[in-house]
Amino acid sequence: MAQEMNITVISTPSKLIDIVLAPDGSNFPEWKFLIKVNLDGMGKGDHLEKECPTDATAGDWKTTDKALMSRVINCIDRRIILSMQHCQTVKEVWDLVNKWFSGTSNLRKLYQLSQEAYRSSQKGRELRDYYYDFKSVCVALCAAMPITNDVGEMTKQRDRLLVFSWIAGLDKEYDVIRSQLLGNKDLESLDQVFSMLQNASGNNDSNELQERNVLMSQGGSTSDNYGYGSRGGG
């Protein structure tokens, strides 16, 4: 007697693409590309960028948008959907996931992408896999920091990459401060970051100096750190 099997069938018309956006956004570049390609191919790419019209076509536009929205939502992990219940249009969903995962307003994501792009390592992967993974990172980084005609914005992007490169090379003792910096809304310049780190280091140095003074008052030696502490006499 054949064993009974339970098979779950997903109706393809209910999903715009075959992949689901991961809750950590790790596959966002691929997901974004496929969503856009499919909607453009259907002649509905304008729903990603335009608001609902206010003329006589508004009714039909809303009906189409709701149908498209359901198919896009079905391509998103359920844990993310809970945070987008306020979205009413495809554009609102699109703008929200771009804000979360594109990196444009997320310094930690930008930092991660910059490190994967500029400090890349094969790490035992097949050459082809290493190449495709690197290309994926480059696409995500370019999407997060697009080329524009705005000189000010381009200068800001360049300065941000310089900051990322510099703080990535900081010693381990600065790990906590680095994490705090990436939690900021923005990092304007390398000079600003250096000043912030110097101030933080100054506070740490003051605390350390107080500890050294206590040790010296108790007869402790500081030769290991300064090179001129108490020496054995003969």
Structure description:
The chain is mostly helical and 234 residues long. It folds into two domains: 14-50 and 63-101; 107-209. The protein is 57% helix and 0% strand. It contains ten helices and no strands. The protein has helices at residues 28-41, 58-73, 78-81, 90-101, 107-118, 127-144, 151-168, 175-182, 190-217, 223-226. Helix 5 packs antiparallel against helix 6. It is globular. The protein starts with 27 loop residues before the first helix and ends in an 8-residue tail after the last helix.
Whole-number tally of structural domains: 2
Structural class: mainly alpha
Which stretches are low in confidence, meaning pLDDT under 50 for 5 or more residues running?
A: 1-11, 208-234
Helical run tally: 10
Shape: globular
Estimate percent helicity.
55-70%
Short description:
The chain has 2 domains: 76 residues; 103 residues.
Topology:
Layout: H1 28-41, H2 58-73, H3 78-81, H4 90-101, H5 107-118, H6 127-144, H7 151-168, H8 175-182, H9 190-217, H10 223-226
